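Researcher: Sequence recovery benchmark, item below. Answer with residues only.
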């Protein structure tokens, strides 16, 4: 394992980076793991890092790599988009312990002087609605709302049945830290259509703020969604129970696997031991 001295010293004034090389990300990740009092003894681990912490560049490495590949977003593009929200960001990061590399990130954004990005950015779309209007319509208090600003998973850790752990860990962490937290009532996001389909497969009770899809940060089809936090556990848990019963009745391996996946989301079964933060 690399030692903390092997990563270049941080500048006195921290400036977020979206342009880390893979080698820089590896060294920074090794430093980060060395700095932890306890690392889960599992293949993957999930960590929460404040957006003003230099280690949060591990998250930006994943964002930068995935969004460049998928949407053509450059480091300068991402710095311009997320710069005003860095101080209000928290990064949920999945790390491959053996490779010592970050492989997934879910960025949450709390309300600040810059607002919630997903609501503020509605004015940039063709929807003809503002964040203030949406808050009034849906009775959203921005101070009690969390914004899912980004979700990104490295290509080799997504797509197949055997590679769902990173996304499950991110969503489980989102639930524990925000959707099930008494300080938050709502969640908002603007999400690409492909990622939106995965949310609905997991029975997350998101609803469209408006039905239309629109171009957003070079995603040709994105949609603005919101959720009422107290609805998430009942929705996922109910679907998990339905699938478990169907799987037993039909002797369906596919439905049984799906039920196990939802059990992890709802109850942490098979997932919580990979979380490197207190479960409140």
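Model:
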């Amino acid at each position: 394992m690399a030692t903390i001295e092997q990563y270049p010293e941080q500048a006195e004034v921290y400036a977020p980076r979206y342009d880390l090389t893979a080698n820089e990300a590896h060294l920074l990740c090794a430093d980060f793991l060395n700095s932890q009092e306890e690392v889960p003894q599992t293949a993957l681990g999930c960590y929460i890092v404040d957006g003003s912490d230099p280690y949060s560049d591990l998250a930006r490495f994943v964002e930068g790599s995935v969004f460049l590949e998928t949407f053509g977003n450059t480091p300068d593009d991402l710095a311009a988009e997320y710069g005003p929200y860095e101080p209000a960001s928290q990064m949920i990061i999945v790390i491959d312990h053996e490779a010592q590399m970050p492989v997934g990130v879910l960025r949450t954004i709390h309300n600040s002087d810059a607002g919630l990005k997903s609501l503020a950015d509605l004015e940039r779309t063709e929807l003809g609605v503002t964040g203030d209007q949406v808050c009034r319509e849906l009775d959203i208090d921005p101070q009690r709302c969390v914004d899912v600003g980004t979700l990104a998973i490295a290509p080799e850790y997504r797509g197949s049945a055997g590679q769902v752990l990173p996304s499950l860990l991110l969503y489980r962490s989102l639930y524990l830290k925000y959707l099930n937290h008494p300080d938050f009532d709502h969640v908002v996001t603007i999400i690409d259509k492909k990622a939106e389909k995965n949310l609905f497969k997991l029975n997350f009770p998101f609803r469209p703020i408006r039905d239309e899809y629109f171009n957003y940060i070079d995603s040709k089809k994105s949609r603005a969604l919101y959720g009422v936090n107290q609805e998430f556990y009942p929705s996922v848990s109910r679907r998990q129970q339905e699938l478990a019963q169907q799987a037993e009745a039909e002797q369906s391996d596919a439905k049984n696997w799906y039920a196990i996946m939802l059990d992890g989301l709802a109850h942490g079964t098979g997932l919580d031991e990979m979380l490197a933060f207190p479960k409140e």
